[in-house]
What does this fold into?
Amino acid sequence: MKVELRNNKDFWAGIMFIGTGAAAIFIARDYPFGSTMRMGPGYFPSMLGGILVLFGIYVMVIGLLRNEKIQGRWSLRALIVLPLSLVLFGVLMKHAGFMPALAVLIFGSAAAGREFKFVEVLLLTVVLAGLSVAVFIWGLGLPYPLIKDF
It folds into this structure.
């Protein structure tokens, strides 16, 4: 059995988990750890990072055993539109408010795919915007203006 790492999807997913977990542990290294009963600010990122590293090792080993190939091709549209919609969300949060920024983020994320249907995305935007306002503005009390005056 020949193992090819370049196109092994679970191997690379495991590497991503290990890298993310290691980065969390590295960033939290100077935070006070505390104990299980009195957790410090470094406890949660260190524990979560450790769990991610262990999970990444598991996924990587499974990927080596199964040797499943990556299916599909890179989408240039998704590589451009998704980061652009995230940047626009950040800019619009500051200058236009929560609702316009969220609408641009949802429409931009949906436009990155090949199966964009305007009515479905509009309905999804209304539902997600309503839930987001309920959770973040009313529930958590975050001070985001819904729509800013120009």
User: Anything to note?
Assistant: The chain has a mean pLDDT of 89.
